[in-house]
Request: fold
Amino acid sequence: MTAFRFDLVATDGRARAGLLHTPHGTVPTPVFMPVGTQGTVKAVSPRDLQDLGATIILANTYHLYLRPGDERIARLGGLHRFMAWDGPILTDSGGFQVFSLAPMRRVDADGVTFRSHIDGSEHRFTPEKVIAIQENLGADIITCLDECAPPMDYEYNRQALERTHAWAQRCQAAHRRTDQALFGIVQGGVFPDLREASARFITRLGFDGYAIGGLSVGEPKAQTYGVLELLDGLLPPDRPRYLMGMGTPQDLVEGVARGVDMFDCVLPTRMARNGGALTRYGRIHLRNACYADDPGPLLPDCTCYTCTHFSRAYLRHLILANEILGAYLLTLHNLHLILTVAREIRDAILAGRFAAYRETFGSAKNIEEDG
Amino acid sequence: MTAFRFDLVATDGRARAGLLHTPHGTVPTPVFMPVGTQGTVKAVSPRDLQDLGATIILANTYHLYLRPGDERIARLGGLHRFMAWDGPILTDSGGFQVFSLAPMRRVDADGVTFRSHIDGSEHRFTPEKVIAIQENLGADIITCLDECAPPMDYEYNRQALERTHAWAQRCQAAHRRTDQALFGIVQGGVFPDLREASARFITRLGFDGYAIGGLSVGEPKAQTYGVLELLDGLLPPDRPRYLMGMGTPQDLVEGVARGVDMFDCVLPTRMARNGGALTRYGRIHLRNACYADDPGPLLPDCTCYTCTHFSRAYLRHLILANEILGAYLLTLHNLHLILTVAREIRDAILAGRFAAYRETFGSAKNIEEDG
Reply:
């Protein structure tokens, strides 16, 4: 844990600006982490990520364990070297993927058995196994195995929480590498009593940081926000808080307003590959015929490579022709936008004007059609 | 034609080094032109092409006419602006694609009727139409409509040649833009009498440069080379010669040895998307299991971004996982290699040591397994 430290630099209301020190560099927070599922942030290269100002990326334990294998990555010098990204990396525990992607899963008190979505082969994750995999991968921040339950099902959440808590203890006991931070995960669906119990249990164990799991998977936004507000009062202020799987511009603003420091989401990169361009207040569907002769950039004031060189008409052509360059250019733009929003949020907190900044997003619909 | 000039700078045997001046810049020859079929060199951006040292790219008239449409590209300011490439561009005439890709084609003396491979709609290319399309696209170098016949069928070639010659005359008469060079195309399959007749007819018309069509489509290599040697004595030395559709490292060396100046080929970019890495003497199939734990670069002495940052094991993982980054990194490497070979050839000619350089390729198999 020696190489890991979190400095809370400034607060503005509940919003926090910090510095997250890791063995591979310091991450200014609030931060958006681009998702590198299979050892690559889809469609872009590490030098692109550097140019975009990404300071930390996420990789998926489930995917890398199945292919190319964590032991292979360890033999090849670890994940940083494997993917040629020498900045900080966070790996999730694989829990979310097992519970959302893998077929034929059977959970018991000791762990979870599942089949690979690639070849149907059978595998088993236990807390100890998931820590071993993440030690092989060698990310700067690793996470405890958790069970992701449907957020509105109380009884399911209550039972899952018992397993998640027992697994957190076992993950903590199993973790050996001192150059990796270990984050605990708070679960409990939309239920205040479960969330509070989870926060108290997990923080009592004591972790380098706290992830908030199981949100934005179908529950009403008001309940998402309610959970975040509750947890803001329960999580220790001197540790980073990571809201898992949420990362639209609005999510960042509203999450930060409730004390969150770290975000990740596949939306900016996935949307790009589907022909969608992110704006601060919504999205542009480039397949729409109205862009066929549009000579303007995606966003007039955007400084990214895509917006300073290419027209909406050209981007639409690339998407319709299924050209890789279309996915690449939209990914660059979408990551540029969300990383820029994260930097703007931090600047606003440091300047004590976060409330005013948040106001500019006030009337925004969340990722709706724009133009 | 004022903006177009070809300076023959040096010769070394039959090998030629030149400078091709166009309205969008000067191209040192011999040159390899990356293929930008649908208005993008597949998987890479214009800034990548610039970084790689590409000096001219090719775009396909057939594809751009069908989608997004040449008139649309004209409205949007022409192809250079559309694809944000401000270097020289050459467009082919669409003939090769119509005769190899489009279904239901019917050729007559006046032109060729075909169906779109995208939506089955019916279209017709005449010499005048193909020039009008290319004037709309606005490339620096455009080409005459030709008919591509199977190279070993004498009677087919004899008849096709009559059409190709009549169409060349009509293309020349139809061409209006003075900021575009027009290249004539020599056809005639593998038959010396037809090739000679074609070269004499087309050079008598007088073009800014001469393309050699209909080769490397199944005929024995010795016959390909025979045609090139024949044409070297028939084409005027003060005009560039462009060997259409050929562009392996060996093709470049052997083509230059027979007086060719310009090359294009989809092989480096297509091979990349299929998981193949180009070497000077063959290719590396990254899907092969032997690379699964290989920590070394594609080529130890290669200076490209891919070889200086990533292992064969990582590249293999990306290809197997069908990640866009795999296609991107292999495309970068393959283009870097073929553009480097073209530069090395030019340097060797300028230094009067082309024969020795060619010797180093002497024992090479043409694009075979390597390692």
Summary: The interface with chain B takes residues 38-40, 42-47, 67-68, 72, 75-77, 82-84, 292-293, 295, 305, 309-311, 313-314, 316-318, 320-321, 323-325, 327-329 of chain A (CB under 8 Å). The two ends of chain A are 48 Å apart (CA to CA).
